[in-house]
From TrEMBL, chain B:
The keyword Flavoprotein applies. Keywords: FAD, Flavoprotein, Oxidoreductase. This is Acyl-CoA dehydrogenase. The keyword Secreted does not apply. Residues 130-224 form the Acyl-CoA oxidase/dehydrogenase middle domain. Belongs to the acyl-CoA dehydrogenase family.
Length: 378, 396
């Protein structure tokens, strides 16, 4: 059934209540204006851990809730409504997926309870150039003793500025453009020869560029199989993409809701502007698009719960659709708010900015439409 | 879950044993669809066998109650049946306005006698219905209709005319909106009646479409005597039924009732016709980019159809005004699909007659889709409904 079950509805209600009280858009402004270095509020992150969110994707035997991807997506969606800044996606969704699916017993023991407790932040480092291109990874991991030496640069590593460890995708074999030869490593964020440059970003949440200049890791730091990391990387990215799609759906819904409220309140030409059919039809069209994106997101989350390795078509549909709908929603929101929509004082611009980041990360609408087409045979 | 799995296994086995192989191929155009009715001539023995077997199980209308000729299946079971039919490419055994529109309205508003009389015959494909709604001056503004039904004692006397009545010349009966009170506000003087197209005073005249076909008609009523027992629901309150029926019509049209792509998307069709490069990408990059976006939208839209139906089933209600979302989005998408199909066809899409192209099946299909955003309420009217009812934006 393509609907939330009772437990998921309860989680949604709790999440909506929590973010609107503890992490409204004003909280993001505070992070921005006070230039908080982590890009999120540590206290809030611990409260999220108390709510159990950090463990949504962690199996119960490691202290998690095992709520699955629908649960994770419900939380992302609610955070999208209030632009909540947190390492939820990087740590509780992507790193938790990597470790619980492919971590060694020692890695699980070390990291999963720490994720659940809200004590560990783990970033994922994939991209190296201006566009998302996991197949194009060129970073080398050369064998060195019984370990590896990493050399190369990773850009736009989300939450890297606050991370304890970074999941890094690098080449132990093959060449850029090939699926074979990729391996994943869990690297200590304070490792020697690892340089970290803080990027100030559009959404005020920050990211880093990491330069690996012969960073040494051991065989125990490999997550999954050497040379065979492609499928695991796809699974981790799939989780991240679905989470972002859910967040973008929330962002679109909230931009839309705020715009509808404005259309019912603003008067010009002696009536509320929401009475003009020129705006009504655009609003109605936008509503349809927002509805379509919501369905695609839920279908992707359910597909991930059913079979994380086989969900890539559904996930790409969701990421493509949610990215373009959130963009349309933000554009229409600014336009229908008129001059006030251009001001920093109201929140609409912040939705526009986060939309741009979330829709670009891990593949934009074009990237995913291309994947959908290939998966469908053309 | 177990019971559903068992149902799936039984269904699969039954379909495999009972669906003729000929009925597992895509329909070749409008003329290949089984519509049923008193004067129906089956296109093949297989078409007849398929309808008879499915109707005997109540599976032409699997979700209707058994006592009215349905299959009595649950929402989940109906989904399974559809999935299993799709898996073997099984055709729909019967298409009909009775199934899509009148049936649901009778189930909700009809008297017990009316249900017993009409529903089983719809289910078996014995009576073909047409829809007498639109009039020359009452299209989008449907409630301004003027066809009158005057009180004649135990019957009504119906006079007036309808337009755009699809298949009126082939239908056995009509469900018809008539004005029974000219002094009341326009929505409150309309009644919903049923009568036979062979009764004295009824005549039809076909209208040629841009696709070169004449599926619809002007329909004239000259003092047609209709027994009062044929009134559905309450006198002068037919508008409620009319609207309820429209939500079903819109859901159906939005779901691609007008599309005949045989389950393949334009990108897939284009790949087979134009070819792909070494990586499997359609060899025309502009067409591919547009087809890829349409594919994303189509898959996301399909999820929305499922979500709305699942939400409706778990809430125990119909899709309601959200049918306007489906109607609007689904029909605009279907038009986009056929634009892509015409681009993929190039010169091959320019032929109008001739066996090579099955009498210009593609351009005729393309032209037919232009009606999708008009029939059953135009896209503009759908957007008005979304704006006013779902978004509660103020009236001008
Ligand atoms: C960057 C910037 C610089 C500016 N500089 C100046 C300046 O130097 N001097 C100055 O005087 N002004 C300036 N303006 C103001 C500008 O002219 C107004 O913002 C503009 O006229 C729109 O008015 P509004 O913001 O009140 O929007 P509103 O009139 O409230 O409109 C809100 C929305 O409703 C729509 N709408 C309104 N009426 C209708 C209708 N009848 N039918 C359909 N849609 C309708 C609008 O198109 C818009 O999308 C500036 C604005 C901006 C953004
Ligand atoms: C293929 C086909 C099959 C059909 N089958 C049937 C049938 O079986 N039975 C039946 O009863 N009818 C049938 N119809 C009729 C159909 O329901 C009407 O065509 C439809 O409701 C539109 O009415 P109209 O054609 O009079 O257009 P009009 O109402 O004249 O509209 C003309 C244009 O103006 C726009 N418009 C009108 N009002 C507004 C408004 N308030 N705001 C903005 N724009 C507006 C419309 O959107 C449209 O673009 C069929 C139509 C077609 C094309």
């Amino acid at each position: 059934m393509l609907v939330l079950n009772d437990d998921q509805v309860m989680l949604q209600d709790a999440a909506r209540g929590f973010v609107s009280e503890k992490a409204p858009v004003a909280a993001l402004r505070k992070i921005r204006d006070e230039k908080i270095a982590d890009g999120f509020d540590r206290g809030l992150w611990r409260e999220m851990a108390d709510m159990g969110w950090t463990g949504v994707l962690v199996p119960e035997d490691h202290g998690g809730l095992g709520f699955g991807y629908v649960g994770a997506g419900v939380i992302c969606e609610e955070m999208g409504r209030t632009l909540t800044a947190s390492p939820f996606l990087s740590t509780a969704v992507m790193a938790a997926t990597a470790l619980s699916r492919a971590g060694s017993p020692a890695q699980k023991e070390r990291w999963l309870p720490a994720i659940v407790a809200g004590e560990a932040v783990i970033a994922t480092a994939v991209d190296e150039g201006r566009r998302h291109d996991p197949a194009g990874i060129a970073m080398r991991a050369e064998r060195h003793g019984n370990g590896f030496r990493l050399t190369g640069t990773k850009t736009y590593v989300v939450d890297g500025q606050a991370a304890d460890a970074v999941l890094v995708a690098a080449r132990t074999g093959g060449a850029a453009g090939e699926a074979e030869g990729l391996s994943l490593f869990l690297v200590d964020a304070k490792a020697r020869n690892l340089a970290c440059e803080r990027l100030s970003t559009l959404d005020s949440r920050g990211a880093v560029e990491l330069t690996f200049d012969g960073v040494e890791v051991t065989a125990d730091d490999v997550v999954g199989e050497v040379d065979d990391g492609h499928e695991l990387l796809e699974m981790v990215l799939g989780a991240g993409r679905a989470g972002l799609a859910a967040e973008l759906s929330g962002t679109a819904q909230e931009s839309f809701t705020r715009t509808m409220a404005y259309l019912k309140e603003r008067k010009q030409f002696g009536r509320t502007i929401g009475a003009f059919q020129a705006l009504q039809h655009r609003a109605a069209h936008l509503f349809c698009e927002v509805e379509i994106a919501r369905s695609a997101v839920l279908a992707a989350l359910q597909a991930l719960d059913a079979d994380p390795a086989g969900a890539s078509l559904a996930v790409s549909v969701a990421k493509a659709k949610a990215s373009s709908v959130a963009r349309l929603a933000a554009q229409e929101a600014v336009q229908m708010h008129g001059g006030i929509g251009m001001t920093d004082a109201i929140d609409i611009g912040l939705f526009m900015k986060r939309m741009q980041v979330a829709s670009t990360l891990y593949g934009d609408a074009d990237f995913h439409a291309d994947r959908v087409a290939l998966a469908r045979g053309f | 879950m177990d019971a559903l799995d068992a149902f799936r296994r039984e269904t699969r086995a039954w379909l495999d044993a009972n669906c003729p192989l000929e009925m597992r191929t895509p329909v070749a155009g409008d003329d290949d669809i089984c519509w049923g009715g008193r004067n129906w001539t089956f296109k093949s023995e297989a078409q007849k066998v398929w309808l008879t077997r499915m109707a005997a199980r109540g599976w032409t209308v699997p979700g209707w109650p058994k006592e009215y000729g349905g299959g009595g299946l649950s929402h989940e079971e109906v989904k399974v049946l559809k999935e299993e039919m799709r898996a073997i490419g099984a055709r729909s055994p019967l298409e009909s306005f009775g199934i899509w529109m009148l049936g649901p309205a009778l189930l909700a508003f009809g008297s017990e006698e009316q249900k017993k009389e009409h529903l089983p015959r719809i289910a078996r494909g014995e009576i073909r219905w047409c829809q007498g709604y639109s009039e020359p001056n009452a299209g989008s503004d449907l409630a301004s209709l003027q066809t009158r039904a005057d009180d004649g004692g135990d019957h009504f006397v119906v006079t007036g005319s309808k337009i755009w009545t699809s298949y009126a010349d082939k239908a056995d009966m009509i469900f018809c909106l008539v004005r029974t009170d000219f002094s009341a506000p326009k929505h409150l003087g309309i009644s919903f009646i049923l009568f036979d197209m062979t009764w004295p005073g009824v005549s039809t005249k076909p209208i040629l479409l841009i696709s070169g076909k004449s599926p619809f008609c002007e329909t004239f009523f000259d003092g047609v005597k209709v027994p009062k027992a044929n009134l559905v629901g309450t006198l002068n309150r037919g508008w409620d039924i009319a609207k309820y029926l429209l939500t079903h019509e819109r859901e159906m049209i939005g779901g691609g009732g007008g599309g005949l792509l045989g389950g393949r998307s334009p990108g897939q069709v284009a790949a087979s016709e134009i070819g792909t490069d070494a990586e499997g990408r359609l060899a025309d990059p502009f067409l591919r980019a547009d087809a890829a976006r349409a594919e994303v939208d189509a898959l996301a839209f399909a999820a929305t159809m499922t979500r709305y139906k699942d939400e409706a089933a778990s809430g125990g209600k119909g899709v309601g005004d959200k049918s306007s979302v489906l109607k609007y989005y689904g029909t605009e998408l279907n038009k986009r699909r056929y634009e892509l199909m015409m681009r993929a066809a190039g010169h091959e899409g320019l032929e109008w007659e001739g066996a090579r192209t099955n009498d210009g099946e593609r351009p005729r299909g393309w032209l037919r889709t232009k009606a999708n955003s008009i029939e059953g309420g135009t896209s503009e009217v759908m957007l008005d409904i979304v704006a006013k009812r779902l978004l509660q934006l103020p009236s001008a």
